[in-house]
Each structure stands twice: as C-alpha cells, then as structure tokens.
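> forwarded from #structure-qc
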C-alpha cells in the first residue's frame, strides 16, 4: 500500500463519522456497498437498523435513478427530477447506513479496501458490488458521439434537447434535403428501450408537436427503428413481438428488422450499404457491465459480467458479493438472469437479509431464487405488451399494467403522485409537459451559432 494511499485512508475513528467512514474493525462488521441503483439500495435497506453492522453506500451520483422511465424524460413526458431521489434522503432513517458520494476505481481484495478516485480508501469486512452496466457500441466507441445511449439523467436531457432542437432547426431550414435529415430520427436496437423510444418520439412528433410549427409539419417526421435480429422485442413470444411491430407501424414508425448497423456518423446511419441521413440517432442496442470485474481481477463474461454463486458471492473472492446488471447469476434452469430492475431489486432484498443472518447469526443462506414478475414493454399511447408465464396481455390492458407497475416501483410518494398526474395529463391531452430546452445545452448553443444538431461537436 503506498504512503499516499495510507495517508488518505479514512481512519476508523469516531471523528470520521460525519464523512461516512466505516467504524473500527474491532467494532461493528463493516459492509461497503458500491452503487445506489436498484441492487445496492435494496441491499442497504435490508441491512438498515441491524445492530452490529455498519454500512457505507458509495455512489458517484447523489441520486438513485429509476432508469425504466428515462425514455419518458428523453421524450419530454416527465421532468428529470421526477424519476430520481437523493440516496441520502431514501436512507435517512437507517442510522447504521452512511452514504458517501465518490467514484470507486479499484478494490484491494488482499487488504479489504475500496479505492476511490481521489485516493481515499474505505476498508470493509464485506463488500457488495452493484455498479450496473453501461452502453456497448460493439467495438465502435466512436459511434457514441453521434448516437448517445440512454443510461443517466444527463443522457436523457441530452437526447431530449437533440430531439426538440431537430424540429427547431428544421423549421429554420430552407434546403429540403437538409430538412428531411433533420426530421429523421433513427433508434438503433429493437429491445424494450428502442421500442419505447421510437414509440415515444412518434407520439411527440405526430401528436404533441403537431400544431406547433408553421413551416414544417412534425407529422411528416420519419422515425426509424433499426434491429439486426429478425424481430423486435426478441425476448417476448412471437405473437407479442409481431403485435409490437404492428403497433409501431400504426404510430408511423418504420421498423427495419434484419438490418445490422454498419456505420454511424454525423450524416446518419448506414445499413445494408446505404446511408440513411438522420440528424438524431439514439443508441439502444448493446450494454456491457461496469468494470468491477477488472477491479477484482476475476474472469468475466464477454460483456464484463462477474460470475456469482447461488448466494451472489463472487467466485474466488471471499467476502465479496455482486448483483444486478453487473453480475452473471443463473436461474434454476441454468440460464443467466436478465439485466432487469426486478432482478436487481429481488437480489438486493435477498442479499440484505442473507448478510444480516450470516453476519449476526452465522446462518448459511438458502440460494437466491428469482421470481419473475413478468416481461413488460410499452409501445405508445394505449399500447403495450406483457408476458408473465402463460399470461399474455397486449394493448390498453398491458399499457395499464405497465403504468401501475412502474408507478409502484418509483421511490417516493411525491414522485409517484407527480408521475401519475403527468401521465394522466399526457394521456388525456396528448401533450408533453417537459418540453423546455436548457440554454446550457451544447445543442442550443450550436443552434444559436448556426450549427444544426447532429453537426454539434460532442461536449
Ligand atoms: C433506458 C432503460 C430502460 C429500462 N427499462 C427497464 C424496465 O422497463 N424494466 C426493468 O425491469 N428494467 C429496465 N431497465 C434495466 C434496469 O434499469 C437495470 O436492470 C437496473 O437498473 C439494474 O440495477 P443495478 O443496481 O444493477 O444497476 P444501476 O441501477 O445501473 O445502478 C448502478 C449504480 O452504481 C453507480 N456506480 C457505477 N459505477 C460506479 C463507480 N465506479 N463508483 C461509484 N458508483 C458507481 C451508478 O452511479 C448507479 O447509481 C432499463 C434500463 C435502461 C437503461
């Protein structure tokens, strides 16, 4: 351990408490959780109030984010603050849980300490890694600047600005070809995120904005959903997937299946050797796990997932657990569990209980069992699909189930109430209540300077 690191270690003294430092090794058992998403937060809550356990939750952001509704922020249905909640506020009543805002960049498994970017070391007895996943551009990181993915609030704000500004720029554009490019929106990836994004952009263009411009007709906007596989929503049954395609087409989305993206550039997207000019491109195609597997020095899957045992313990790293989108856990049939909020949430609940029992009573926990609450996706106004065992729903009923499930899972009564009211308003009026573009956005500055979005230099 280097001198510098030694000096920056948060030494376990009572005076450290205001900084959220772990208590002395001789005192309570120190559990460090990295990540305040679904997995990390539910683990922390499960350990809340446990006497004899001191929990430190570290996240690089100060808020827990409800990612399933990000696309609604990106398409101006709801405002960013309505799907995020400060982690500190959520855990304020769990007196044995401290929250630290900081970016973890390594783990010293020998010394049992987590390393933060600023050199601080946080010692642990038990470590829980729940750092989630990020976008993967299939070996083309250069595509990211033209086709942002949707993972954080900043991503959603940026995409919202691009979508809204494309219409603003088109209104000012005289050249028909340039205008057509500005009014073409390409969504790459036909999974739930891509389907939801494409349907929501169609709703925005064909309804919410339809009367607001004078030189352009937003209803003429071209929305493309590009998928390499033979069908969209590939994890759903064929009939639900076909229904989703028909619904998208009814909304005015052009669905291109069996079209692998060959290039993404400032000009647009190239598929089947042909460039489709598009000013706004959204990436919803691939994800890879956060680099926590590298911190641990363990072998991971190709997408960086950390293999875990039935109790979510990282194989070959005693005292370390991984869950959620970071982990590769298997269902009872041996298939890997999907990267879903409900998986991370159930794993977090399990791990909180299991660690409490193991640390306080020495009990060996039963293996984790995932109970699916169904596969859900929304396509647009009044239209969704739900698959739960043999139960299949589509149309309005599925849309309703999706809405109720998502409102229920939102953290905080205020968020639930506001989001429900926003949806009710959007449902009845077809309007979008969160259409403001921030002047700080780089795309606004570029437009003012005369550069249309899509030709905007990345931040
Ligand atoms: C657009 C979108 C739509 C989705 N829709 C659905 C849906 O409808 N239904 C569903 O079930 N699932 C959905 N998901 C998936 C779901 O959101 C994830 O499966 C879930 O968030 C995984 O939880 P997690 O705790 O593993 O990771 P996350 O929720 O991603 O949390 C990871 C946390 O770790 C923190 N972190 C990461 N690295 C570091 C670091 N180095 N240092 C400190 N902190 C760090 C992050 O800031 C973050 O807070 C969607 C995901 C996206 C992106």
């Amino acid at each position: 351990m280097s001198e510098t690191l030694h000096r920056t270690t948060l030494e376990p003294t009572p005076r450290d408490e205001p900084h959220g430092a772990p208590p002395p090794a001789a005192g309570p058992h120190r559990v460090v959780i990295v990540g305040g998403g679904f997995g990390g937060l539910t683990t922390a809550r499960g350990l809340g109030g446990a006497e004899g356990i001191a929990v430190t939750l570290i996240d690089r952001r100060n808020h827990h984010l409800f990612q399933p509704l990000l696309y609604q922020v990106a398409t101006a249905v709801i405002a960013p603050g309505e799907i995020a909640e400060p982690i500190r506020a959520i855990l304020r009543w769990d007196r044995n849980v401290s929250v630290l805002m900081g970016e973890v960049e390594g783990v010293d498994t020998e010394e049992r300490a987590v390393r933060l970017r600023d050199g601080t070391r946080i010692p642990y007895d038990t470590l829980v890694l729940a750092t989630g996943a990020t976008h993967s551009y299939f070996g083309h990181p250069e595509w990211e600047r033209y086709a942002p993915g949707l993972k954080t609030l900043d991503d959603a704000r940026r995409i919202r600005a691009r979508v809204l500004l494309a219409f603003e720029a088109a209104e000012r554009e005289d050249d028909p070809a340039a205008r057509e490019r500005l009014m073409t929106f390409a969504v790459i990836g036909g999974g739930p995120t891509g389907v939801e994004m494409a349907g929501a952009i169609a709703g925005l263009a064909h309804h919410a904005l339809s009367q607001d411009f004078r030189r352009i007709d937003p209803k003429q906007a071209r929305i493309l959903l590009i998928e390499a596989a033979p069908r969209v929503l590939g994890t759903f049954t064929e009939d639900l997937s076909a229904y989703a395609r028909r619904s998208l087409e009814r909304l005015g989305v052009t669905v291109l299946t069996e079209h692998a993206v060959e290039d993404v550039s400032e000009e647009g997207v190239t598929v089947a050797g042909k460039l489709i000019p598009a000013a706004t491109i959204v990436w919803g195609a691939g994800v890879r796990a956060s680099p926590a597997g590298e911190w641990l020095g363990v072998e991971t899957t190709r997408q960086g997932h950390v293999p875990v045992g039935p109790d979510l313990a990282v194989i070959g790293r005693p005292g370390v657990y991984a869950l959620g989108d970071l982990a590769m856990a298997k269902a009872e049939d041996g298939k890997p569990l999907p990267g879903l909020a409900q998986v991370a949430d159930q794993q977090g609940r399990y791990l909180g209980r299991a660690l409490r029992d193991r640390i306080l009573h020495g009990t060996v926990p039963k293996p984790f069992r995932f109970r699916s609450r169904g596969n859900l996706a929304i396509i647009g106004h009044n239209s969704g699909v739900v698959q739960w065992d043999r139960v299949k729903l589509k149309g309005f009923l599925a849309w309703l189930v999706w809405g109720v499930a998502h409102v229920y899972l939102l953290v905080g009564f205020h968020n639930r109430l506001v989001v429900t009211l926003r949806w009710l308003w959007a449902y009845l009026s077809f309007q979008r209540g969160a259409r403001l573009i921030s002047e700080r956005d780089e795309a606004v500055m570029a437009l003012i300077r005369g550069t249309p979005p899509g030709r905007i230099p990345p931040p």
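QC bot note: Residues 3-135+287-361 form a domain with the FAD/NAD(P)-binding domain fold (CATH 3.50.50.60). Residues 34-40, 58-61, 67-68, 70-71, 103-104, 130-132, 150-151, 192-193, 290, 324-326, 339-342, 344 surround flavin-adenine dinucleotide (CB under 6 Å).
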